[in-house]
Specification:
The protein has 351 residues and is α/β, with parallel strands linked by helices. The chain has 2 domains: 137 residues, 2-Layer Sandwich (Enolase-like, domain 1), CATH 3.30.390; 193 residues, Enolase-like C-terminal domain (TIM Barrel, Alpha-Beta Barrel), CATH 3.20.20.120. It contains 10 helices and 13 strands. The strands form 3 sheets. A 7-stranded parallel sheet has the order 4-5-6-7-8-9-10. Strands 3-2-1-13 form a 4-stranded antiparallel sheet, sandwiched between helices. Strands 11-12 form a two-stranded parallel sheet. Helix 2 packs antiparallel against helix 3. The protein is globular. It is an enzyme of class 4 (lyase). Converts 2-succinyl-6-hydroxy-2,4-cyclohexadiene-1-carboxylate (SHCHC) to 2-succinylbenzoate (OSB). This is o-succinylbenzoate synthase.
């Protein structure tokens, strides 16, 4: 299969409500869309598109986002722009060759995902992004939101939802302990995945976890500021923990540790599909769960992650409950009143 044309676009979507990025907040999401046309052996033209959106940029206070993508959107755009001409009239295998040596994880992921899409490797899985899909709902309190509004959102969760993700290490320990107990009073059947984003030191993490009903906590992501303290946290309190931000370190090597129960993996921050599969094999060999999670992509990216999750982790519900904050969709309809089409995007370059 030969690449006949490439088009690079940029999108910008305002958010209806703030989204948390660690302890920071964003009110707009920006990213790229790569569209590739290729001709197969029968002369048929295939067209696919992927979203490439590093989790970087500025928060609502104008401060750089920290702890997630190290590359900027401009870096990725410039690099991809320079690659387009060398990919025209080349076999689609060149997408993988470039991805394998690419140092920018979001670009490496996007190129390898494009190759998989053109090969049809994500086909055969029926995906709905509408409200009836099974998700792990994300619970957090907006700065301008009353506690009663959050309580109502918990009450409104469908009866067949039995797990939820709760952002912690955002406010005071007392407020967050109270919040978790309130959630469980409303829905005692819920198992909670807590996400601390490295917000506690070891002593704070232990004090926090000691106030919670252990049986209701599935795990806590990145409980300690220093990842080396996570095992000590588990030994002290017995609460299972998961890795998230630690996986973004280019030098990360999987090592089994006491209490490690899951890897919460953001593909946009990791790199190629091959790298994801290698990490999954290492984790599952040690009995550690492998859970795909969004990097706050728009609907185009979320649909791809939903398909990947069905293929790679069919027994796990991925963490993809961020689309509700987007004011409109991106090329793929999730049921919002408006969906951006190609004419709404900014064309950067075509080859």
């Amino acid at each position: 299969m030969i690449i006949s044309a490439l088009h690079l676009y940029q999108y910008q979507i305002p958010l209806d409500k703030l989204l948390p990025v660690g302890s920071q907040r964003i009110d707009v999401r920006r990213g790229l869309v790569l569209k590739v046309e290729a001709i197969d052996e029968t002369g048929q033209v295939l067209t696919e598109q992927v979203e490439i959106a590093p989790l970087s940029g500025l928060d609502i206070d104008g401060n750089p986002l920290h702890g997630f993508s190290k590359e900027s959107l401009t870096q990725v755009s410039d690099k991809l722009e320079s690659l387009l001409e060398q990919l025209v009239q080349k076999p689609i295998a060149d997408l993988l060759d470039i991805a394998d040596v690419e140092s920018l994880p979001s670009l490496a992921f996007g190129l390898s995902l494009m190759h998989a899409k053109l090969k049809g490797q994500l086909n055969g899985h029926t995906i709905s992004l509408n409200a009836d899909r099974k998700i792990i709902p994300l619970l957090y309190r907006n700065s301008d939101e009353s506690i009663n509004a959050l309580h109502q959102r918990v009450s409104d969760l469908p009866a067949d939802v039995h797990a939820a993700k709760v952002k912690v290490a955002q406010t005071s320990l007392e407020e967050e302990v109270q919040l978790i107990h309130q959630i469980l009073v409303i829905r005692p059947d819920l198992k909670l995945r807590l996400d601390a984003n490295r917000g506690f030191d070891l002593e704070q993490a232990i004090d926090f976890a000691a106030c919670l009903p252990l049986a209701s906590i599935e795990y806590i992501e990145e409980p300690c500021q220093r990842a080396s303290d996570n095992a000590a946290f588990y030994r002290a309190i017995g609460m299972p923990w998961a890795l998230d931000e630690s996986l973004n370190d280019p030098m990360f090597q999987f090592t089994m540790q006491p209490g490690l129960t899951a890897l919460v993996v953001k593909p946009m921050l990791i790199g190629t599909l091959e790298k994801l599969q290698k990490l999954q094999a290492e984790a599952e060999h040690s009995g550690v769960r492998f859970i795909l999670s969004s990097s706050l992509e728009a609907s185009l990216g979320i649909e791809a992650l939903a398909r990947l999750s069905q293929i790679m982790t069919p027994d796990e519900l991925p963490g993809l409950d961020t689309l509700t904050a987007f004011s409109y969709d991106l090329l793929v309809d999730s049921g919002k009143p408006r969906c951006q089409s190609w004419g709404d995007l900014t064309l950067i370059k075509s080859c």
